[in-house]
TrEMBL record:
<protein>
    <submittedName>
        <fullName>ATPase</fullName>
    </submittedName>
</protein>
<dbReference type="InterPro" id="IPR027417">
    <property type="entry name" value="P-loop_NTPase"/>
</dbReference>
Length: 348
């Protein structure tokens, strides 16, 4: 029989617990987000601030549900639960009437018939920003070396503590486990990173390679949006125009595509940094990669004078910021390096 306290001890042994940028208030919260974004490690980091925590992974095949229910009830009656964490949540437990409960889900979609979760607060947990990546790295590398590694390895917390030869296989295995029979559809979707795409366009394209229905494509894209695996960004010029596609991990093509497109990867990387600050305020336009309030942003790894002249011509009277690999001095508009941009070492 597994004792509840041993479950928590076992789980903590195998995780790197990192303080994240997300402020999780006391109370009843649902942490959701894409795979390997750090939801479990964040919840266990929070548990360190409380004396009596119960952690249960609802899909662990070793669970004896009746026994765990009895242990939860016993701890509740003895007032020995300060925090209950239910990972990979399934409605198999009656939630005790305690102040602090953390539910971990992949999606923000709560089943309408699960009345236990109706008053919980939703919190999206995303992978690392570049600032977090630097802070959590125990490497002796300088900031430029860390930046080069960040571009290659991506923003998953798991990559920080993986050996070099493990990284690609881990990324591939994670996605195959997450998508299962839909993995080939995901690989096709990845080809549209940082591009404008509609459900119908993707369905038409995928039919050339796979036997798939439009309903299945629609359901998959909806699911991926609900767990913040993908983001479909609207056009500032018209809400009816085609949306642009970005992924939660910009580096996915390095593990799942034969021909990674660095421009698309870099643009996705810039989007995620902007999303960490502005979230739903981000749009794109016909003449700009990103529009936020009165400022327009461009993600161009290696801009030349022709790029800059075209941007200035198409966007008169606009505040323009170009994010590049390296800063350009004495330009007609602001061209900043990604590191300064991500660390907010520039005048916004």
């Amino acid at each position: 029989m597994r004792e509840i306290k041993h479950i928590l001890e076992e789980k903590i042994q195998h995780l790197h617990l990192l303080p994240r940028r997300f402020g999780i208030k006391k109370g009843k919260n649902i942490l959701f987000g894409p795979p390997k974004s750090g939801k479990t490690s964040l919840s266990l980091f929070i548990s360190k601030t409380l004396k009596n925590t119960i952690y249960i992974d609802c899909i662990d095949p070793r669970n004896d549900i009746d026994n765990l229910k009895n242990q939860i009830l016993k701890s509740f009656l003895e007032k020995k639960i300060d925090l209950l964490i239910l990972d990979n949540y399934k409605p198999i437990f009656i939630l005790p009437n305690i102040e602090n409960i953390l539910i971990i889900l992949n999606s923000k979609q709560i089943p309408s018939d699960d009345l236990q979760l109706q008053n919980f607060s939703l919190k999206s947990i995303m992978p690392l920003t570049f600032e977090e990546y630097i802070g959590f790295s125990n490497s002796s590398e300088d900031i430029n070396q860390l930046f080069n590694r960040f571009i290659k390895d991506g923003n998953s917390p798991e990559m920080l503590h993986s050996l070099e030869f493990q990284k690609i296989s881990k990324k591939q295995n994670n996605m195959k486990l997450f998508f299962q029979e839909d993995y080939d559809l995901f690989a096709l979707l990845l080809q549209f990173q940082s591009q404008k795409i509609t459900v119908n366009q993707f369905y038409t394209y995928s039919k050339r390679f796979l036997k798939v229905s439009k309903d299945k494509v629609y359901a998959l894209l909806t699911r991926l949006q609900n767990n913040h695996f993908i983001f479909l960004i609207p056009c500032a010029d018209s809400i009816n125009k085609t949306k642009k596609l970005y992924f939660y991990d910009f580096s996915l093509p390095y593990a799942h595509s034969p021909n990674p497109n660095f421009q698309a990867i870099f643009e996705n990387m810039v989007f995620l940094e902007l999303y960490s600050q502005y979230q739903e305020q981000i749009f794109y336009s016909q003449n700009a990669h990103f529009c936020i309030n009165e400022t327009i942003f461009f993600a161009i790894p290696f801009p030349n004078q022709q790029n800059i002249d075209t941007i200035l011509k198409n966007n008169p009277y606009k505040k323009i910021i170009i994010i590049a690999i390296n800063k350009i001095q004495k330009s007609q508009c602001q061209v900043i390096d990604f590191v300064s941009f991500a660390l907010k070492e520039y005048v916004d």
